Amino acid sequence: MHSPLTRRGFLAAGSGLAAATALPALSGCSLVAAADSDPHTLVVHSQLGTTSPGSPTYLAGLDRFRKENPGLKVKNLINGDDLAQVYETSRLARKEPDVVMVNLYDKTLAWTDVGATVDVKGYLDDWGLRDRVRPEALAAWTDAKGRLRAFPYFATNWPIAYNRALLDRAGVDAIPTTGDELIAAARKLRAKGIAPVTVGGNDWTGQKLLAQIIQTFLTEDEARHVYSTGDFGSRGAREGIEYFATLRDAGVFADKAQGLTSDLMTTQFNTESAAMESAMSSALAKVPEKVVRHTEVGGWPLADGAVHDKPTILRTYTLIGFWISPNGAKKIDAVEKFLRFMYRRDTVSRFIQESGRDMALRSDTVSTDFPLVAAAQKLGSDVSQVLLPDVYVPPAATQPLITATSTSFTRGTSAAKVRAALETAYRSA
User: pTM value?
Assistant: First the structure.
């Protein structure tokens, strides 16, 4: 796989990022300011700080950290989906922040390999923090060469949310567990003017649900091969695509799903315009209380001949981690104080209690104020877990897969054309 983050890739990325995009994204701070060389100033670059779930808890945590460490200043830089692009630009100038809080996905997959961030395994062990991390999270954040890319932090469960009140109104007696039951439920819901399954068919939410459905007939090893190579020609992959196309053309998904986004999906479910959605923990935490009262979580219904014996969910431990940059390695004492604080049990508990976040760290705290998140955490033998493909998809194929996803959710697109669109997304990888 050709990495887009080689020196040449970095330069190409930097030249393509207009100042109008990069500089305002740093909330008025220049890249020079972002790279404060003062050893008593820690620069943290995060997606938390605006409307992202957990932002109030994070900002309050920074205030507590500053009070506990009066001799250490903390600059907090905030970006949304363009964080990786902005970080790469700052790294090219050798003025990158010290710590980066972002998920393992797309561009970030190559960061440690090309020296944009450092292997943190030694720090984790030297600071005695390994036992705080769930083993599954350590495995997910470790690359093929044994390097730990970042300190794991946020995780997520990704079940299907079912609005029982809407299902009851349509005469659907039980949550569907098979494809036939799902199709029958969709027909009854549509007869009542209710959208069945809402999904962001034009963004990452649709991509994840599509991948989940395709894996109906794939073992974990087979799924890993499919999403690493883009080879959707195996019998299991073809059967999964055919299952998806059957559900789509039977009207299971909301109208014009190929044009919906994650925000529109969430709005449809939360306003009770749709009866079902594929909802990660952060979405479950936003469901209004009046809807929560008659919502249940479970897995995606299976087809006959599935390799799984229970409806499926997604789960990942790579949602947000703390990456250390080469600049951060020069201020490692300050970074250690910050990481120890963020790993403290009381800090972790606040994210669970106040924000409904799932964590990649060990904790006995339960999201009592976020009952759907707590219910998803408790899903055990009633569901089967399938592979989240993020860490296996080559970075160059990530965005093309979103385009292929929109094509896939367009009703009438044949299974063969869906397969071709998915495989085409890998040709530049």
Answer: 0.86
